[in-house]
Structures are given as structure tokens and as C-alpha cells.
Write a structure and sequence with these properties.
Layout lengths: L29 H15 L3 H14 L4 H11 L12 H20 L6 H11 L11 H19 L3 H12 L7 E2 L4 E2 L5 H12 L10 H12 L8 H7 L7 H5 L2 H7 L2 H22 L5 H18 L3 H12 L4 H4 L6 H5 L5 H8 L3 H5 L11 H17 L3 H16 L6 E2 L2 E2 H19 L3 H16 L13 H11 L3 H11 L16 H13 L3 H17 L31
Antiparallel strand pairs: 1-2, 3-4
Helix pairs in contact: 1-2, 1-3, 2-3, 3-4, 3-5, 4-5, 5-6, 6-7, 7-8, 7-9, 8-9, 9-10, 12-13, 13-14, 14-15, 18-20, 20-21, 20-22, 21-22, 22-23, 23-24, 24-25, 24-26, 25-26, 26-27
């Protein structure tokens, strides 16, 4: 495979605003240095496509720049969100050959490099030992991490070396550094070594660690699945606006905002993220892998808006997102973009269920291509079934349930939901829909058993931030428990969802969300536990005031809300006496 030669573009031409981050390299060209800085910033921002382009530009300006070839090899390799196992065969062969050639070119020109640069270049050889895909990815990742440890042992005070070593360690067990159910480090992951490397680097205040987007980015990924994600907030706040036109950098702090219940901050940062992403979309289009990250950033905006009770914000974001995903992108075979992106095409349906848009859902049309949009088709039948059940049309709800099961069976197992699969997410939908239908049939024991099954399935989904199942089943379960007067059970459910006890795993808690605050407050008032109600009254008022729709229950599937306590003391949207 011969590397495509690109024409050099002057670094002074109009380009994205990436801030001032950089890493000095050995080069005879000022433009090559600028393009290298841009490439490193982009890969630290997880836009590996644009990072590779920038490293190619650095090579075009200085064909003998060893570190530009190193950067290209690094950019086309695996990363935390796309390990070797997630490459399709065609993408894998192209990437390995490209990385192998770039790494060997780096070694070829390393004679004039600094000792640190030569060490990095030697380490990258172990990521691409041959020009053919490996048969043992775990061994390959372990070998690269071992090579980076040798670099770190000598040059560990360099913040970029620390970042790259932590990255190598994390990629040995991506998204598995912690055991979510025990809250302890995964014994099969190098979690404590990652912790030591990142925290040592962050403590080097004289070296400006809080100006390094890669270091801060990785720390958020490290801490988010831990039992104490709040420990990363200071890091997140430094990262939030560090790289102005890198949308994913604006977004990353919201992984922690969501976990600590700062929904409004999450909305603001994710909105900024989508604005930056729109710049990239308008210049580079959608036919690139960064589209996955763009849609993830939109997803996070919608998710935060849903938990804040902001229907308009959520729907506006969905509309903007959908306008940036032409169908031809989903039809790209390598990488198989439908497998990566179809998960986002169902987001509107989750918003409509969340906000009880029953009449609109009843009229919702199915996708025109039910093979390409297999997951959307199944989710549409689920959502329509919920809508018919909630409005008392059980017969039609049953018909939609049957169509849902038929559509669910046709969803390819290759369709991803972040670290999980769409088919598994639809398992939650199946139990949820059964519970809603049985409830409308007054089969309450069966209904609540099905909803508890849905909760169990939801809790077992692989970690993702945000979650692929966008409305916690506990919100519907507790709302319907209240409607049946089972207040103690509802109160326990709300308490768990808000994270006021330790009965569920840390990532499944949703502090300060308006739905459970309202529901828990009502439970406590109706139970006569007024001292406890007073403690959450102010947070509930604040959350309800920030919502853009009236919220009288934690799920619009609860119909009996006439006696709901008025938390806002007579104030209503648009007017206050």
C-alpha cells in the first residue's frame, strides 16, 4: 500500500481554532510544526481522521520529519472507543498497512530526532509489528504498553509521554477499568497504574498539566466509571473550553456533569460541542468516522435535556442532528457506518416517549427502509405500543407489541449501542412495553413484575455515557406504583434513582433529575414525612422551574395526577402570581 501524497497547505491559511496547545518536534519547517501541533490536538480530542490529515500535512511540509510519521501511525491505530476488535476487515487492513508504513518511515528519519522522539518512534513499531493484522490483539496491546513503559520510565515527566503511556494502558482494557458492581478496580485491568500515571502528571503544576487536552480527556475517562466521578470535576472544568473548535472536548466534561446531576451545565457544554461540531461538518461533511463523535455529542445534549425536563431543547437538538446524517453515510460499508450510527436514529422516539407525545407517536411513520433502519423500526413499534397503552387502546398496543417482536428479531447483532448492542437495549423495551400493557389491563402484579424485569435488564447494559436507554425504567415503575397507592415502594425507587442511598450502582444514579425530585417530593408529602420533604423541596423547585413543560409525574404514563402537590407554590410556566 503506497501512502497517498498530499499537497502542502500553508499553515497560515484559514483553519479551525484549536487553542495554543503543542509539542515541539525536530523539523526544518515552521509549517510542519504547526500542522503537527494540530494533529496532536485533534487525536487528543478523538478526531483521529482530522489528526491523520494534519500529520500528512506536516509530512508534506517536511518529508524528513520523523515525528510527523509517528503521529500518522498513532492516529490510524486503535483508540479507547475503537479498539482493534471493532475494526471491520477492510478498515483493519487499510489502517494496519498505513500505520506500518508510517511507523517505518518514522524510524527511517529518526537519526536526527531527539532521544525522546526516538523512544516514541521505537515504541510505535510494536503497535505495527508487521503490515498484516495481528491474530492476538491482547498481546499486541500489551506489547505496545510495555514499550511505552520503557519510554515513560525515562521521560515520564514529559506530560505528553505520561498521556501516551496512560493511553496505552487504558487501551488494554477499554471501558473496563472498574467493576461497576463492586466499585473496585477491575483486577484484570491496569487501573491503579493508570491512576498513578495520570495523577502524577496532574500534580506537575509547573509543567501546565491543565493545559494538556489529552491528559485531561483521559482522566475523565479514567474517573467516570469509578465510584467517585466527582473527583474529576476540577479536571473537567479546565478541559471544557480548552480547544475552541474541537466539539468533543467541549463535550467530555459532561460525562461527569451527568453523573453528578449538573444537567444545566451539561446542556450548555454539549450545546457548545454541537456548535463546534457543526463547523467541522460544514467543512468536512459526514462521510468520515468523526460523525460517530458528532452524533454522540448531540445524543448527550438530548439526554441532559430530557433529564432536565427540557422538551424543546431536546427536540431542537434531535432535528439539528438528523439534518447532518444523510442516508448515504449509513450505507458506507467500511467502516460499516450503519452498525456504528443507527443507534442515534432512534433518539427522537425516546424523546417523544419521555414527554408523553402520545398522539404524535400514534401517527409516527415507519422508516422507508426497514432493513437499513432495523433498530429504528423496532423502536418505533415499541414507542407506538407505549403510546396506545398509555391512552387506553390496549388492543392496538398488543398489535404494535407483536410488530415490535417481529422487528426486533430482524435487527442485526452487529448494530452497536456504544459498548453494547441495539438488540440488548431492545430487551429493555420488550419488558417495558409488556409492563405498560399489562398495567392498562389492570394486571398489576404482572405489570410490575415486567417493569422490574426491565429495570434488571437496564441495569445490566454495558456502561455508556450517556446510556443508550434514555428514560430510566424506574421513572415509569415508580410513577405507576404511586398511581396504585404503593407509596413506600415508589419512594424507595425514587431515592435510589436520585442517588440518595447506595442501593444501585453509581452510574445508574441520576442526582437532581427533575422527574425523581418531583416524584419523591410527592411521595414524602403523601406519606406525611414532611421533614424529609422539606429537605428536597428547594432542589425540586429549582429543577421544576428550569423545565420547559409542566411535570406532575416521573412518567407521562401515569394519568392520575390531579392531587399532585404544587411544589412551585402556585407558579406556572409563563406566569407567576
Amino acid at each position: 500500500m503506497t501512502r497517498q501524497v498530499v499537497s502542502p497547505v500553508p499553515a497560515g491559511d484559514e483553519y479551525y481554532d484549536l487553542g495554543s496547545f503543542g509539542h515541539s518536534i525536530t523539523t526544518s519547517s515552521g509549517d510542519a510544526q504547526i500542522w503537527f501541533n494540530r494533529g496532536l490536538t485533534w487525536v487528543y480530542s478523538f478526531n483521529h481522521v482530522e489528526g491523520a490529515y494534519c500529520f500528512e500535512q506536516a509530512i508534506a511540509h517536511d518529508p524528513a520529519c520523523a515525528m510527523a510519521y509517528w503521529g500518522l501511525a498513532y492516529a490510524v491505530g486503535p483508540n479507547y472507543n475503537k479498539p482493534w476488535e471493532k475494526f471491520d476487515l477492510g478498515d483493519l487492513h487499510r489502517s494496519v498497512q498505513r500505520g506500518y508504513e508510517a511507523s517505518r518511515e518514522a524510524a527511517k528519519y529518526a537519526v536526527n530526532a531527539t532521544p525522546l522522539e526516538r523512544a516514541l518512534i521505537e515504541a510505535i513499531q510494536s503497535r505495527f509489528p508487521t503490515d498484516q493484522p495481528a491474530t492476538d490483539y491482547a498481546a499486541l496491546n500489551k506489547g505496545y504498553a510495555a514499550a511505552m513503559k520503557l519510554v515513560y520510565d525515562i521521560f515520564g515527566r514529559d506530560l505528553n509521554i505520561a498521556t501516551l503511556y496512560a493511553d496505552a494502558l487504558m487501551n488494554m482494557t477499554p471501558w473496563s477499568l472498574w467493576d461497576l458492581f463492586t466499585g473496585k478496580p477491575n483486577p484484570n485491568a491496569p487501573t491503579m497504574e493508570v491512576k498513578a500515571v495520570l495523577e502524577r502528571a496532574l500534580a506537575q503544576e509547573e509543567d501546565g498539566p491543565y493545559l494538556n487536552p489529552g491528559l485531561l480527556h483521559l482522566y475523565i475517562h479514567f474517573i467516570e466509571m469509578s465510584p467517585t466521578p466527582e473527583l474529576g470535576i476540577n479536571v473537567a472544568d479546565h478541559l471544557r473550553d480548552l480547544v475552541p473548535d474541537a466539539g468533543h472536548i467541549h463535550h467530555m466534561p459532561t460525562h461527569l456533569d451527568i453523573l453528578i446531576g449538573d444537567w444545566r451545565r451539561s446542556i450548555a457544554s454539549n450545546h457548545n460541542s454541537t456548535l463546534a461540531d457543526d463547523k467541522y461538518f460544514h467543512k468536512s461533511g459526514a462521510k468520515n468516522f468523526y460523525t460517530f463523535y458528532r452524533l454522540h455529542d448531540y445524543h448527550s445534549l438530548v439526554y441532559a435535556a430530557m433529564f432536565a425536563g427540557r422538551r424543546k431543547t431536546a427536540l431542537d437538538a434531535v432535528t439539528r442532528m438528523e439534518a447532518t446524517v444523510p442516508e448515504e453515510v449509513l450505507r458506507i460499508q467500511s467502516p460499516p457506518m450503519a452498525d456504528w450510527l443507527e443507534q442515534f436514529m432512534s433518539i427522537r422516539l425516546h424523546v417523544m416517549v419521555r414527554f408523553g407525545m402520545w398522539e404524535e407517536l400514534k401517527c409516527k411513520e415507519l422508516p422507508h427502509d426497514q432493513e437499513l433502519y432495523a433498530g429504528v423500526t423496532a423502536t418505533t413499534h415499541y414507542a407506538k405500543g407505549i403510546a396506545f397503552a398509555a391512552t387506553g387502546d390496549v388492543a392496538t398496543a398488543r398489535e404494535e407489541q407483536e410488530r415490535f417482536h417481529q422487528a426486533w428479531a430482524r435487527v442485526p447483532a452487529t448494530r452497536r449501542a456504544y459498548n453494547g448492542k441495539i438488540v440488548d437495549v431492545l430487551g429493555v423495551a420488550s419488558a417495558m412495553l409488556e409492563g405498560e400493557i399489562e398495567y392498562r389491563c389492570a394486571n398489576y402484579d404482572k405489570a410490575f413484575a415486567s417493569l422490574r424485569e426491565a429495570i434488571e435488564l437496564e441495569d445490566k447494559l454495558p456502561y455508556s455515557e450517556p446510556w443508550s436507554w434514555m428514560q430510566p425504567v424506574r421513572h415509569a415503575y415508580a410513577a405507576l406504583l404511586m398511581e396504585q397507592g404503593r407509596l413506600e415502594e415508589a419512594a424507595q425507587t425514587y431515592r435510589a434513582d436520585l442517588g440518595l442511598d447506595h442501593s444501585i450502582i453509581r452510574p445508574r444514579r441520576h442526582p437532581n433529575n427533575v422527574w425523581s425530585l418531583q416524584g419523591y417530593y410527592e411521595c414524602l408529602v403523601r406519606l406525611g414525612r414532611m421533614d424529609e420533604a422539606a429537605m428536597i423541596e428547594q432542589p425540586a423547585k429549582l429543577a421544576l422551574a428550569a423545565a420547559d413543560v409542566p411535570i406532575k409525574a416521573s412518567c407521562f404514563c401515569r394519568l392520575d395526577t390531579a392531587e399532585t402537590p404544587q411544589v412551585l407554590n402556585g407558579c406556572s410556566k409563563g406566569k407567576c402570581c
